[in-house]
C-alpha cells in the first residue's frame, strides 16, 4: 500500500477548485498560470467528476440556503479540477486573485473579473472556489485529497 503524500504543517495551504464552467471553457491552464505566477506552489491536482455526496459535504454550511440544490447540480454537471496550493498567506492571496463572488462585479485583474461573466442562467458560474479560512482549508483538503496528510514535527 502506498504511503500518503505529506504536507508541511508549518506552511499554509488552501484548496482551489476550478469549477465546471472554468474546466468546460478551457480556463484551467490560465487559472493555474495566475496562481503559480504569484509564487504559490501546487501540491496536489486532480480532475474529478464530483458526486452529490462529496459536494453536499463540501458545501454543508449552505444546506439551508435557497441556492443549495442549484449549486450542487452545477458543480456535479461536469468535471472540475481540485488543487492544493501552498504558500505564505496563500488563503488570502488566492481569494484576492479570484475576485469577488459575482463575476460581473469582480475587479479587472482578478480571475473572475477578467474571465467570468453572468450567463443569465440564474446560477452564479464564477469559475473558481478557494478556501476562506485555515479551518476550511484543512477540512476541504481532507475531503478532496484524503491521500494527503500533514506530517507531525519530529
From TrEMBL:
Broad EC category: transferase
One family name in Pfam for this protein: NDK
Family matches, as Gene3D superfamilies: Nucleoside diphosphate kinase-like domain (3.30.70.141)
Catalysed transformations (reactions): a 2'-deoxyribonucleoside 5'-diphosphate + ATP = a 2'-deoxyribonucleoside 5'-triphosphate + ADP; a ribonucleoside 5'-diphosphate + ATP = a ribonucleoside 5'-triphosphate + ADP
Gene Ontology molecular functions: ATP binding; metal ion binding; nucleoside diphosphate kinase activity
Quaternary structure and partners: Homotetramer.
Lineage: Bacteria, Bacillati, Actinomycetota, Actinomycetes, Actinomycetales
Protein name: Nucleoside diphosphate kinase
Cofactor: Mg(2+)
Any GO CC annotation of this UniProt entry: cytoplasm
HAMAP family reported in the protein's UniProt record: NDP_kinase
Active-site annotation: 129
Keyword Phosphoprotein: yes
Gene: ndk
Function: Major role in the synthesis of nucleoside triphosphates other than ATP. The ATP gamma phosphate is transferred to the NDP beta phosphate via a ping-pong mechanism, using a phosphorylated active-site intermediate.
A biological-process GO annotation: GTP biosynthetic process
Family listed: Belongs to the NDK family.
InterPro entries reported for this sequence: NDK-like_dom, NDK-like_dom_sf, Nucleoside_diP_kinase
